Amino acid sequence: MRQFNLGKSKEGVLNLVPEHTIKKVSLGNQSIGLLRIGETFFAFQSQCPHRGASLIQGSLNAAGELICPLHQYRFELKSGQVKAGSCPDLEVFPCELSESGLQITLPSK
Ligand code: FES
């Protein structure tokens, strides 16, 4: 496991990541997508598991699903489960917001 910290305070991270906007974040040698709904953060692989389109250009629907811009496959943000389409699930990474910032845990490579 590799752990990364974003920001130095809860307030700082909330200001850094606007709500409902997908941000590309580089952690070590990996780029991931980061999205915030309220004070809940979701971190996920930046490329679609279907054909590799950039999910940074993706969008969010009212059900809290991430929609790929290329073929509109949908993924549940929390679990990464594919909801519409036929491809592997999206890889999602645990995030934890605390008074000292946001901690994101990536698997070991
Ligand atoms: S590349 Fe994302 S749905 Fe096809």
Order of strands in the sheet with most strands: 2-3-4-9
CATH homologous superfamily identity = Rieske [2Fe-2S] iron-sulphur domain
Structural class: mainly beta
Oligomer: single chain
What is the strand content? Answer: 35-45%
- List the bound ligands: FE2/S2 (inorganic) cluster
Mean pLDDT: 96
N- to C-terminal separation? 8 Å
Assign an overall shape.
globular
As a whole number of angstroms, the C-alpha radius of gyration is 13 Å
Give the proportion of residues in helices.
under 10%
Residue stretches low in confidence (pLDDT < 50, at least 5 long) are: none
CATH topology: Rieske Iron-sulfur Protein
Largest sheet: 4 strands, antiparallel
* Number of strand segments: 11
CATH class: Mainly Beta
Q: Supply the number of helical segments.
A: 1
Descriptive account of the structure:
There is one protein chain. The chain has 109 residues and is mostly beta strands. It has a single domain (2-106), classed as Rieske [2Fe-2S] iron-sulphur domain (Rieske Iron-sulfur Protein), CATH 2.102.10.10. It has one helix at residues 10-16, and strands at 2-6, 23-27, 30-37, 40-45, 59-60, 65-67, 74-76, 82-84, 92-93, 95-98, 101-106. The strands form 3 sheets. The protein has a 4-stranded antiparallel beta sheet, with no helix packed on it. Strands 5-6-7-8 form a 4-stranded antiparallel beta sheet, with no helix packed on it. A 3-stranded antiparallel beta sheet has the order 1-11-10. The chain binds FE2/S2 (inorganic) cluster. The site of FE2/S2 (inorganic) cluster has 9 residues, from loops. Residues 48, 50-51, 53, 68, 70-71, 73, 85 line the site of FE2/S2 (inorganic) cluster.
